[in-house]
Amino acid sequence: MRRKNKYILIIALMLVSLLGLVSIQIYWISSVITERTLEFEENATRAIHQITRKLEEEEGEYLLSRFAGLKDFISPTYRQTTANYIGTIPGRNEAFSIRQNVLEETFTIPLNKLISSRQDSLQIKNYFSQITSVPLYTEGASSNPNYSIKYGWNEENVLQDILRTQAGVIGDMTPIQQRVDPQVLTGIIDEILSDNYINIRYQYGILTDGELSDVHSEEWDEDLIAFHSQLFANQDGYAKYELVLRFPRVMNFVVRSMVPMIIASVAFILFIIGVFAAAIFYMIKQKKVTDMKYDFINNMTHEFKTPIATISIAADALNSSRINSDPERVEHYAGIIKQENRRMLTQVESVLRIARLERGQMELNRTESDLNSLLEEALEHIELIVTDRQGTIEERFEAEKTTATVDRMHIINIFLNILDNANKYSPGRPEITVRTYNTSDGRYWAVDITDRGLGMNKSETKKIFEDFYRVPTGDVHNIKGHGLGLAYSKKIVELHGGIIEVESAPGKGSTFTVKIPLD
């Protein structure tokens, strides 16, 4: 019982360790998927801002080029203003006389040259500023009479910035479907998404005051997660338009990017499961083999006790002066000793045969033989035992081809093992049927040995040919044997290139079929 509990504890600890490893691996994969999803969202957010910025830049460049083409249609008007004032530097005894001249340059642009539907005009003002300063008095003037501070011309031509601002004003006068070409937009989206390592199907749309405009992809699923970015915002930061990107299969994209990692992880998990399963399988198998070996040792000890005790009694009797003076009684007890010795020798030889088979050291002495004759020889040995139990053996020799090259001794032993089991596992009077025949393909001589004994369930029939296995009967010793006969029989049949099978049902008996290839 303690040994059984130890095996259960070891298996339980192995299963807990396996579940722990698998759980950690699954958690790690889940964490990586979460990180990759967040990384995708960051890339998508950055990409959509880049897309809107590029759209705005391209529209600005386009409108500026259109302004440049209007130079023949506009002429500036000028207005100059002058301002004089005194400037001081706080905390220092310095003062300056400052004069500022401002030149105002006004452009009047006919909008019909930019927007065909507009007949009014747009005024753009540009300013040139000139500042001069002359020191009135300074702290350093007495020591350096030439000391003076003078700011030269400080002109700032802000025409380009003003034009960009006015270009935005003109853009707001244009419908969005004229400002954004879907093909151009698609090209920009493809390029920027690729630069951000996003290679996945997408849906796009431009919202006007929150409503979907005419500029959008053919597919548009409102249920998908959306990424937003303002488009064509004015100087006050207000944007009438908004670009929206949606991605139908984000999780598929994330998982697909992790396929090598997931395959490696799954392979590792399966490998670990396989190793643990194999370890548990061999542990259970080893436990069964150990249990069967213990049963075998117990059975062997039990089998040896009887002949040893008989030999001991016979030897003591031979030492008796009353018996050793009687030749007939001496011969009788000597015969008992010889018979019991032969019995122990047979038991030892069966164990050695299995050992030689396991090591592949068994050599077959093949000769051309009549298989029906070998079966009849085995039947002669078992017939007296069955008859003694008031049993019957029905013989039906239907095989026409019976010649094969086999090892006579081992083939007879196979028949004896099966016939002996049919007798031993029949609790009442044995009823055994033996039928020989040729298989339909003509390749094999076959024999069916059927009994009406205890029978076996399916799990027992799968184990019946294993070393040391014995069908449980409630008492280990009530049926003599070591659990080696059928294991030996199967190995010998397979060495001959044949087949051995069993069909059985509890309470209905068993049928063993042996097929030997013909010459």
What are the key terms here?
519 residues, alpha+beta, five-stranded mixed sheet, four-stranded antiparallel sheet, 14 strands, 49% helix
Structural features, described:
- Its EC number is 2.7.13.3.
- The chain is an alpha+beta fold and 519 residues long.
- The protein is built from twelve helices and 14 strands.
- It has helices at residues 2-68, 159-172, 176-179, 182-195, 250-257, 259-319, 321-324, 327-358, 371-388, 408-424, 458-463, 485-495; strands at residues 77-88, 95-110, 121-137, 203-208, 211-216, 226-231, 241-246, 366-370, 392-397, 403-407, 431-438, 444-450, 499-505, 509-517.
- It has a five-stranded mixed sheet with strand order 9-11-12-14-13, with helices on one face. Strands 5-4-7-6 form a four-stranded antiparallel sheet, covered by helices on one side.
- The longest helix is centred in the N-terminal third of the chain and has 67 residues, at 2-68.
Overview in brief:
With 519 residues, this protein is of the alpha+beta class.
Distance between the termini: 53 Å
Spans where pLDDT lies below 50 across 5 or more residues:
140-160, 474-478
List SSEs in N-to-C order: HEEEHHHEEEEHHHHEHEEHEEHHEE
Number of strands: 14
Helix content: 40-55%
- Sheet with the most strands, sense and barrel status: 5 strands, mixed
Give, in spatial order, the strands making up the sheet with the most strands.
Answer: 9-11-12-14-13
Shape: rod-shaped
What is the residue-averaged pLDDT? 76
Round the Cα radius of gyration to an integer and report it: 53 Å
Strand content: 15-25%
Give the number of helices: 12
Structural class: alpha+beta
